[in-house]
Amino acid sequence: MTVAPYRPEPATARRRGGVLRVVAPTDGAPLDPSCAPASAAPFVRLHTRQLVTWQTARDVRDWQAVTPVPDLALEVPSTWNAGLGASHRSYVFHMRPGVRWDTPDRRPVTAHDVVRGFKRMCNPVRPSPSLAYFASTVRGLADFATAWAAEATHRAGDAATLAAYQNAHEIPGVFALDDETLVIELARPALDFVHMLALPAASAVPVEHDAFVPGSPEAAAHLRANGPYRVRRHRPGEWVELVRNPAWEPAADPYRRAEADRVELRLSDGAGRADAEPTDAPAEVPVAPAVGGLPAAEPVDGDGALGWALDPYLLLNLRDPVWADPRVRQAVALAVDKAAVADLYRRHRPGVPVRIAGSLIPPGNAGHDTADPYPTGDPARARELLASAGHADGTPLVLIHPHSGLGPEVAHACASDLTRAGLPTRAVGLADAAYTEALRAPATAGGWQLAVAARVPDWLEHNGRAFAQAMLQATPVPGGANHGGYAAPEVDALIERALDAPEPWRADAAWRAAAERAVADVAVVPILHRAPVAAPRRPDRVDGIAPLPPQGYAVDLTAARPGVDE
To answer: Mean per-residue pLDDT for 107-136?
Structure first.
């Protein structure tokens, strides 16, 4: 791997303090971590903590750049420190002293709070988007989540009812021996389990959160922090203001800082183009799934970089009967002119490497393959397939896309390609929050047949499941990114084989096979692979910019220093 190093910045005359203003997507607000997607981790990091976390990297060739480090835990369990059992299924964590909640009594964060966080990620009202990862790994968590969801079908969804169920039931594989000792038992060894523990879903949660429905505005208004900042006030969908947390002790937090006095997040619903964002925001953090990234970002050295993104791809809502004949799906794959989309990206994102994609898993991720079963831009062949399938023009297909990034341009280009090939298609733009909801619940969000989407990896080592499992596995547990409802027993078996594999090379082979089969089935249509991008090293009036590689190379907002002149 060859990645350009982030060199230390020259000394400046600026001091600690000031206001850091950041433009953030609406669904990336640093609110309830139990419901936050992995893409919100740079914001969640401001006010929450997990058992392990990531550290910034000036040079992402350093192995520490992509390896979790202890956060709430004193150590990352291993066989060397006796925290990891010989079977690699039992992890023992010892809690770091000095970490406290932002409560009147500044109560210590305990192992019981981490157990509560694992339970709350399973809530049936707004389950964590990362739930499927944990459900297939932690002993008994899948049964806990499905039983709670079944119970919720005939119970009220108010906070008291949810808390009563949560507190009356246990996850067999997650338990506290005492306030300082946590045990997590796995259903099977997992090469990537420690990486998963850095996701927002694995945050510790205080008992005070039981009084509110997960993900609700009320929950957001009453968050209790254990990180360097706390939410002072917010207006849902518009802005969030965070100030320093008086209960936070720097000595008990090796990997976060609190350089700014205040952090202001201005939330964008995507209706305003990213290119037109005001320039008064000194730092702008690129966060998926804004298709095309942000224009302020600069590429990490592309060819050797970890963490390339699938950006964009077409998602097919396979619940719709229009896709019942595989020849119709194949026509979609043949109709899209991927080279034209690549040119579009190169015009709007000059300098950011992109490659025409044939595989679901991009370069720099476990299980990547260069195979492409469908050539790009062959409308004549697409029309032949439609004719052989007896497909007749009817109501135009609906292709939804986010307003942010290059979503509109990509959607209209694809809609034109499909229409020319004999599949009349209408592009429909949605604000980011509405778009996310449409993907999360396609059966209830208004009939769409196609969506423009993007996916970045949720971590960088042993991460085949961040694409293949998240996007393809058919599971009754909510969460994941299988928004199209793809279900193939052979692919599910390959995913299970990958999850069971004791060696990385065996897992990679199974991830690759699962992705190849799904692309051949046209579960999705990969369009481009994009190199990872990082926010500018020196935005105007901001110092201390350093990337967090496993969080999409986003800025560590706790270390960013807004301009405060001496």
So the answer is: 95
